[in-house]
Amino acid sequence: MTQSDQTSNRNWSLLFLCWVVASMSTLGSVFFSYVMEFAPCVLCWYQRICLFPLVIILAVGLFPFDKGVVRYSLPLAIAGWLTACYHNLLYSGIIPKSLTPCSKGVSCTEEYINLFGFLTIPMLSLLSFSAIIAILLILQRRISK
């Protein structure tokens, strides 16, 4: 196996790992909605709008490996991360509830789960988008060499 083949395999593996994170996050989101019957708030829907297409975009970039996939997927991941940041700040009370986009339906500060005292649904989303962005940036750095 040549050096170029090994580099290509590692890049493909990084993209596959990114797809796994996006897929698991999507499945978790669907699980919370349809199995646990947690109603998503407005900010949760915005984050889903950013997350769900990533599963398809990243999968298309895997077969065959597309070096431009970072360019297509990173803006969605950053938009989801920014929304998740806002949601976490709102959830923790740093942003006042008067700036909440949830005027009807489920409140954006509704607490459904709280694992270990800090793992909430908005925090899971933030961690997921952070992992996706980190992997995409590592992949971009490796591709541009």
Word description of this protein:
- The chain has 145 residues and is mainly alpha-helical.
- The chain is 70% helix and 0% strand.
- The model has no long low-confidence stretch (mean pLDDT 90).
| SSE sequence, one letter per element | HHHH
- Total DSSP helices: 4
Q: Oligomeric form of this entry?
A: single chain
Instruction: Give the structural class.
Output: mainly alpha
Beta-strand segment tally: 0
Computed over alpha carbons, the radius of gyration is 17 Å
Give the % helix: 55-70%
Sheet-strand content, in percent, reads under 5%
Instruction: Name the overall outline.
Output: elongated
Low-confidence stretches: none
N- to C-terminal separation?
Answer: 20 Å
Main beta sheet: none
Mean pLDDT, all residues: 90
Name a few traits of the molecule.
single chain, 70% helix, mainly alpha, elongated, 4 helices, 145 residues
Summarize the structure in short.
This protein is mostly helical and 145 residues long. It has helices at 3-35, 42-62, 69-91, 121-144. It has 4 helices and no strands.
